[in-house]
Specification:
- About 35% of the residues are buried.
- It contains 6 helices and 5 strands.
- The chain has a 3-stranded antiparallel β-sheet with strand order 1-3-2.
- The protein is mainly alpha-helical.
């Protein structure tokens, strides 16, 4: 099993709130945003989840599907990791190609246990926004 791999750039709360056109407090209330934080890392937001001054709809769908099961670090790792169920593409590349969100949902549900194990071995204090 490999460790969590987090792909930047990463934004601060202030940078992310400014990009989204909201306050930092409003950002903390959003449940569709992947936030990384823990003893090893200050609060940051992976920039790959944003497009057109909002959370990418595909990412919001993934977060809605597994955000209660997986911490933010696991979701961020999953979004950028090559996935055999997605033709060896990362989910972000899959979304960029305009491919099926339903197939990505199938893949993320199939990967929940592995994603949990990677995060618990690497970053036990990481969590999802919300």
């Amino acid at each position: 099993m490999s460790d969590v791999v987090l792909v930047g750039p990463f934004w601060t709360r202030s940078e992310t709130a400014s990009y989204l056109g909201i306050t930092g407090d409003e950002l903390l209330e959003r449940t569709d945003v992947v936030r990384l934080e823990g003893r090893w890392l200050e609060e940051t937001y992976p920039a790959l989840q944003f497009r057109d001054n909002d959370v990418r709809p595909e990412v919001a769908t993934i977060v809605a599907a597994v955000g209660d099961e997986l911490p933010g670090a696991a979701i961020a790792d999953w979004l950028s990791r090559s996935n055999p169920l997605l033709g060896a593409m990362s989910p972000i590349d899959w979304f960029n190609a305009g491919l099926s969100i339903q197939m990505a949902l199938t893949a993320v549900h199939a990967d929940v246990d592995d994603a949990k194990a990677r995060v618990s071995a690497s970053v036990p204090a990481a969590k999802l926004a919300g």
